[in-house]
Structures are given as C-alpha cells and as structure tokens.
Amino acid sequence: MKKKNKKSIEGINMQRETRKTERVLRKSKLKYSLRIAKKKQLNIHFLQKQIENLNKALAESNIREFAELLGNSKKILWKNLIAGIFRGIGIGIGVTVITAILIILLQKIVTLNIPVIRRIYSRYRRDCAKK
C-alpha cells in the first residue's frame, strides 16, 4: 500500500507541476504574443510615417507638374526660351558689375602711386593711345 500511496502522491505532484508549467507557458505565450502585437503596431506606425513622408516629398517635388510639362512640348520650348533670355541678361549684368568693380579697384591702386603698377599702367595707356 505504501507503494501505491507513493505513486499516487507522485502522480498528484506531477499533475500539479504540469499545471504550473502549463500556466507559466500560457503566461509566457501571452507575453510573447503581446510583444509581437506591439512590434506589429510599431511597424505599422513606422510604415504610416514613412508613407506620409514620401507623400510630402512627392508633393514638394512637383512631380505631377513635371509629368504634365513633359507631355506638352510647346510649354517646354517656351519655358526654355524664357529661361535662356533671363540667363543671358543675368550674365550680362554680372559681367558688367564685376568689370566695373575691377576698374574702380584698379583706379584706386593707380592713385596710390605704387611704382611697379604705375609703370604697367602707363605702358598700357601709351599702347592704347597709339592704336
């Protein structure tokens, strides 16, 4: 009888242990599934933010207008003509301003009576007067 009691007590203990392990496993599975759900939510949130950023970038880059422009060759020619005209005007104005600044600086340097520069300037002036 003692053997049966020992076996039954061991059986009861085994049942208790298995129940405990089952509870622990359930809890750990719940925790694991909660972790996975949180990660999925974070991934979804991250993807939503990336989509919003991409949408903003596309809106700012005016891709739609660019596609419309490519479809209309008259618009391209007109815009390029206007852009070329304004570039030419800008280059002309820029060269004029830089040349004026250089001439003013050279006049100031000549008035300082530095011997070397004075000689170069006088030679240049004589050569221009001869022509």
Can you walk me through this structure?
The protein is mostly helical. The protein contains four helices and no strands. The longest helix is centred in the N-terminal third of the chain and has 60 residues, at 2-61. It is elongated and about 135 Å long. The model has no long low-confidence stretch (mean pLDDT 79).
Describe the structure in brief.
This protein has 131 residues and is mostly helical. 95% of the residues lie in helices and 0% in strands.
Q: Give the topology string: H per helix, E per strand.
A: HHHH
CA-based shape: elongated
In quaternary terms, these chains amount to single chain
Spans where pLDDT lies below 50 across 5 or more residues = none
Distance between the terminal alpha carbons, to the nearest Å? 139 Å
Helical content (DSSP H or I, runs of 4+)? over 70%
Query: How much is the average pLDDT?
Result: 79
Largest sheet data? none
Beta-strand content bin: under 5%
Tally of extended strands? Answer: 0
Total helical segments: 4
Structural class of the helix and strand makeup?
Answer: mainly alpha
Question: Rg, please?
Answer: 44 Å
Task: Give the key terms.
131 residues; mainly alpha; elongated
